[in-house]
Structures are given as C-alpha cells and as structure tokens.
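Project outcomes to date are best conveyed with an example. Our students and postdoctoral researchers have been running inverse folding experiments weekly, and each run begins with a structure described purely in tokens. The record below, which covers 566 residues, was selected by the lab manager from last quarter's runs and is presented without edits.
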C-alpha cells in the first residue's frame, strides 16, 4: 500500500511540472519582440523607419536616391546592394541605406602631328579634374601649340588642363627650318634645264622617287617683269582619265627656276579639270600673292612639294592593289615586295600567267601586261589532288580566285583565257581580242552575258555550268570547233548554223528544246558523224598546240536539231 501511494505521488509531481514548463514557454514566445531601426545616409531615403517586430517577420525595405545620388549598399545588420531588400527579423537590428553622390566623368585623348610626342594619360577623369599634359618635340622640330577642334588652346608645351567635357587635344609641331632644304630643292630643279624634250627623269625626295616625262616644247612668258620659259612634265594613264603634272618656269636669261606649279587633273563629263594645285617659289623671288598657291615659308614649300610628289603614282610602276594578285607575281618571279606596285618593265614581256587557287579578286593592273598570250586563273574542283607543293598549299589554305570583273581589252595578244570556276565573275570584256583562240569560263555562275562579236578566231568556247546566261551570239565565230555549254540551265536558244567547223559540241543538261543548224551540218556532221577537213586548236595550254579532236556532238534526248527553231 505504501509503494502504491509513493508511485501516485511521483506521477502527479511530474504532471504538474510539465504543465508549469508549457505555460512558461508560451509566455516566452509571446515576449520575443525585437526593435529594428532603418535609416538612410545623406542623398536618399527609405520607405520605412522600422519598429517593433516579432521574430521571423519579413520587412520589405526600399532605398530611393535623391537627384544626383545613387544607392550603393546596405550597412549595419544588412549587407549587399539588393534593392528592394527583404529583411527577416532575428533580433534587434540597425540597418542603413548608403547613398553616394554621382560623379560625372569625361574622356581625354592626346595626339600629335609629325615631329613630337605627348605624355600618356588615363582615358577617363571626373569632371573638372586638372590633368597635366606634356608635349615633347623630336630633334629638328619645335612645339607650336595645342589645339582642340582646330582652335588653339595653349602655346605652352606643358600645362594643366581642366577637363569640362570629352576632349581631344592635338600637339602641333613644326620643322626647325633654316631654308637650306628649299634651296637644295631648287638647286635640284635647276639641274633639269638640261633635259631634252621627251627625256624621262626621276624626281627624288628623300627615299621616294617618281618618274615623269618631259612632253612639250618650252612655252615663253613673263612673270613679275622676268622673261621665262616653261617646261611641262606629266603623267596621265592610258585612259587619260586622271593624271599629274609639274611645270617648271625657268628664267630666260640665267636658266634658274622662278617657280614650280604642281597639280592633279581628271576628266569630268569629258572636260578636263584640275585640283591639288600648288605653286612653289624659288628663294629670292617674290610670290604673286595668290593664296591658292602661296606657302608662308621655304620649309612649308619643301614639305608641300615632298607631299605632292609622294601622292603621284609611279609611272614606271604598275599599280596592283590586289595583294593576292601581286603575291602571284612575286611567286612567279616578277616582283619582290608586296607594296601594291610592280615594275612595269618586269611584266610587259610576260606571255603567260598561270596561277591557280591564288585568292585573286581584282585584275586591276592587267592592262599593262601587253604581251600576255595565256591567262590561266581558274580553280580546281575540290576533289582534285595536285602534286606540286605551292599549289597544294594554296588549296589547303582555302584560297580560290574570286575575280568579279575582268577587263582584258588592252591585252591584244591573248590567245587563251581560262577563268574557270571564278564563281564571283559577273562580267568579262574581251572586245577587240582578235587573236583569241580559247576561252574557258565554265563554272562562272554569276556571268549573265558575254560579247564575242570581235573574237573571230575563237576555236574553243566553254561556258558550261553557268546559271545566268540566257543567250549567246556565235554568228561571227566561223573558226569555232569546240563548244561546251553543258548545264547552262537558263539558255533559251542556240544558233550554230553559221559555225560549220564545230567538231565537239556539248549541250547536255540544258533546257534547250531546239538547236538551229545548217543543212551542211545535218548532212556532213550530225548524220555522218564526220567533218570535212580538220579543226586545229592552235594554242590553249602552253604545252599543247595543234591538237585535233574527233567529231562528238552531245545533247539531251529531248533537244532537237533543226533548220528552223521557230
């Protein structure tokens, strides 16, 4: 009995203790309220000042900057720059939104003319920053002034520049000149008085030279009471479209130079006009006061003369602007430097250019290859493997000749031209090439027309695999023996009735319904598969001549031969 009472007492004691603890926890949770203070620094505000919050309450806080300020970060019991901020209450807290004043920045760029250097500066500075800028002249030059947008802002080589906007400053330098250069220049020009009409002379300035040709009888005149004789030198290209001229005015009594006029000329609507006119006066002779001609110092005259001659094209050189075309000439041994020019004497006697996969896009300059007989600039099909390393390397490099326009009218001696697979080719001008025997343009998919009216000796014509040619006039090609038009998909009609020497004809895979032929061709070629006499393809590759071919006419099954295709 005693043990039973003891057990009951213990049970009741534990029960009462649990009830007491539970009541205490409920009171504790009810008392977990925290103070959260929310502030802002100068330059902005927050949407709430905080207050008393139970634990685990989430407060949405938004920071709003004033004009000219930006919100940067949270301080105190919060961190980062998330805005708005969701803050979870875990205890008493003090949070501050931090704002900073916006700083306007500007860029500063320094550069210089020839003859000096400038110090390095940072690219961006805060508004109204004071930056020291320094200009240092090279030997033989002097500092003149700083300019901004063409306006002089300081004559001091070093000064503090206050940056109020994006600025580009130019340090201007000039050559220290004792006039000896201009005297040397005119002494050189005076030596020209012994030149005979038609002589070629190199005008040298520094390491650069030009060659002009005396071309007229001296003209007599008077300048400031002094009698003079004028000798002209000029350089005008074959099209007479643009050129350069220099005229020398010599004193009649002493032969000394009075002045020089240099200019460029060009044609506009058939009228010759002039530009870039410069007049250079000899020492001790007055100018005529024309501001279009006058230079303020001998040193400026020298620089202007030097700059003018540097702009003149090289007469003894042919301009080759396509680097890959010039590289081909270098590889073929006709040039030695990739500089857009090749010595004309090195190319005038070239009879063959054979350069496959060269990456050539422009044939400008080809007009001076006046003895060229064979021009071979096609691309191999991708599946062809070649044995010689230089061509294989160009193929491996992905190079393809991609010529868009070809004007060959000045290459009168051409007998064979192959620009096969130049996909970019849009036009080719072969007018007047009366010696042309072979023309291969297959795979030139952008070629839409071709004029063959003057190529009366043409024996071999290949225009196959062309998607844009719709018609071909073969009327004057009486010597034509091979005609390949395979896969010329847009060809609408074909008349070969005047081409009685055709031996090899391929018009497969075209849309031709009818090919107009002559009665002679029906009787002697189509029906008998033979031809009266031989057709000889004299020169089309450098190692093949006098090649003859069996009769082979091929067409689509639905194409017919007829005397009248109407």
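After processing, the design step wrote out the following sequence:
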């Amino acid at each position: 009995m005693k043990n039973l009472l003891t057990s009951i007492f213990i049970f009741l004691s534990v029960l009462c203790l649990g009830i007491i603890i539970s009541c205490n926890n409920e009171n504790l949770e009810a008392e977990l309220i925290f103070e959260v203070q929310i502030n802002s620094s100068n330059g902005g505000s927050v949407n709430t000042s905080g207050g008393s919050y139970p634990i685990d309450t989430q407060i949405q806080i938004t920071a709003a900057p004033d004009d000219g300020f930006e919100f940067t970060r949270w301080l105190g019991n919060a961190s980062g720059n998330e805005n708005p901020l969701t803050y979870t209450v875990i205890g008493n807290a003090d949070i501050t939104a931090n704002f900073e004043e916006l700083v306007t920045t500007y860029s500063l760029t320094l550069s210089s003319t020839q003859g000096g250097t400038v110090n390095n500066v940072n690219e961006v500075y805060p508004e109204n920053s004071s930056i020291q800028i320094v200009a240092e002249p090279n030997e033989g030059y002097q500092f003149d002034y700083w300019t901004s947008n063409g306006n002089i802002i300081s004559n001091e080589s070093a000064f503090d520049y206050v940056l109020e906007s994006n600025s580009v400053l130019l340090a201007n330098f000039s050559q220290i000149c004792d006039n000896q250069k201009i005297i040397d220049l005119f002494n050189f020009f005076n030596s020209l008085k012994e030149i005979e009409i038609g002589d070629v002379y190199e005008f040298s300035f520094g390491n650069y030279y030009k060659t002009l040709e005396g071309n007229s009888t001296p003209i007599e005149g008077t300048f400031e009471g002094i009698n003079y004789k004028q000798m002209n030198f000029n350089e005008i290209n074959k099209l007479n479209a643009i050129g350069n001229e220099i005229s020398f005015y010599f004193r009649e009594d002493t032969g000394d130079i009075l002045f020089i006029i240099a200019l460029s000329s060009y044609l506009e609507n058939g009228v010759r006009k002039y530009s870039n006119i410069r007049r250079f006066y000899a020492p001790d002779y007055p100018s005529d006061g024309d501001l279009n001609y006058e230079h303020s110092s001998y040193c400026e005259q020298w620089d202007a003369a030097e700059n003018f001659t540097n702009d003149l094209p090289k007469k003894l050189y042919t301009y080759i602007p396509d680097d890959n075309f010039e590289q081909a000439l270098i590889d073929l041994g006709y040039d030695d430097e990739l500089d857009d020019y090749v010595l004309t004497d090195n190319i005038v006697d070239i009879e063959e250019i054979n350069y496959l996969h060269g990456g050539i896009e422009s044939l400008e300059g080809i007009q001076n290859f006046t003895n060229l007989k064979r021009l071979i600039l096609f691309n191999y099909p991708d599946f062809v493997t070649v044995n010689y390393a230089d061509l294989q390397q160009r193929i491996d490099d992905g190079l393809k000749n991609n010529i868009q326009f070809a004007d060959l009218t000045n290459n009168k001696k051409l007998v064979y031209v192959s620009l096969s697979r130049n996909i970019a080719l849009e036009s080719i001008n072969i007018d007047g090439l009366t010696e042309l025997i072979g023309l291969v343009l297959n795979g030139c998919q952008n070629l839409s027309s071709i004029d063959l009216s003057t190529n009366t000796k043409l024996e071999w014509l290949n225009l196959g695999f062309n998607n844009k040619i719709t018609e071909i006039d073969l009327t004057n090609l009486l010597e034509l023996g091979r005609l390949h038009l395979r896969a010329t998909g847009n060809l609408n009609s074909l008349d070969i009735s005047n081409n009685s020497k055709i031996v090899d004809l391929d018009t497969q895979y075209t849309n031709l319904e009818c090919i107009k032929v002559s009665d002679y061709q029906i009787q002697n070629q189509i029906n008998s598969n033979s031809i009266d006499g031989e057709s000889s393809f004299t020169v089309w590759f450098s190692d093949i001549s006098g090649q003859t071919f069996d009769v082979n006419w091929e067409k689509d099954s639905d194409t017919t031969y007829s005397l009248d295709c109407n």
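Residues 33-101 form one domain. Residues 279 and 293 are 5 Å apart (CA to CA). The training component of this project remains on track.
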